[in-house]
Design a protein that fits this description.
The protein is 39% helix and 17% strand. The chain is α+β, with helices and mostly antiparallel strands. The longest helix is centred in the N-terminal third of the chain and has 16 residues, at 15-30. The two termini are 16 Å apart.
Length: 199
């Protein structure tokens, strides 16, 4: 595990080994196994798993992130959202990283509704099919389980969620990093910027 509790995997860790450790820890958590090793799962993730369990989120993924707005409404909401004016800057800052790694650039509102997703159409289609990761869906923890967007909102802190750290099984093949964005005048969270891609 990384010495930085907000980073899921450090450079010296083999991602496949870390994914296996986390998957076993997730299975033990769901089985209410008391032999849980606190060194395997980061505290922010373990806390999120508990919040998801209390909220009744389905870890099997048979109930995916709910659609809360249709395409037209989603585009209207984004057009009126303060982050819409920064979309060119967001793209400029993140597109090189996203293109190189095959990641999606995502902007959500303060509730976790995905307002815009940019990136490879192939990756977008796979994300939509695998886990209902599409514009207009709700990716709060209550809507989709532990994920970078929802957990960043719950904790009001940037966070990375790696593979099996996700609470819902279909999402465990993905990795995401997200940061909440605050209104510079009020300090209120107005949305989240996220990068999502393959494990």
């Amino acid at each position: 595990m990384s010495p930085n509790s907000w980073l899921a995997v450090d450079a010296g860790t083999t991602p496949k080994v870390r994914a296996q450790e986390l998957r076993f820890a997730w299975e033990r958590f769901l089985a209410d196994d008391d032999e849980e090793d606190p060194g395997i799962v980061r505290e922010a993730i373990a806390d999120s798993w508990r919040r998801c369990q209390v909220a009744g989120v389905d870890p099997t993924g048979s109930r995916k992130a709910p659609v809360i707005a249709d395409e037209g409404e989603t585009h209207e909401r984004f057009a009126e959202h303060p982050l819409a004016t920064a979309s060119a800057l967001i793209r400029e800052c993140l597109s090189a990283i996203a293109d190189e790694a095959g990641y999606l650039i995502v902007v959500s509102d303060a509730n976790g509704m995905l307002m815009t997703i940019e990136g490879s159409s192939q990756v977008r289609l796979r994300a939509a099919g695998d886990m209902n990761f599409a514009e207009g869906t709700l990716w709060s923890e209550g809507g989709a389980g532990t994920n970078a967007i929802g957990t960043a909102l719950a904790l009001d802190h940037a966070v990375q969620v790696f593979g099996p750290e996700h609470f819902s099984d279909p999402v465990q093949r993905w990795t995401c990093s997200a940061a909440p964005i605050h209104d510079p005048d009020t300090g209120a969270v107005i949305g989240v910027i996220d990068l999502t891609g393959d494990l």
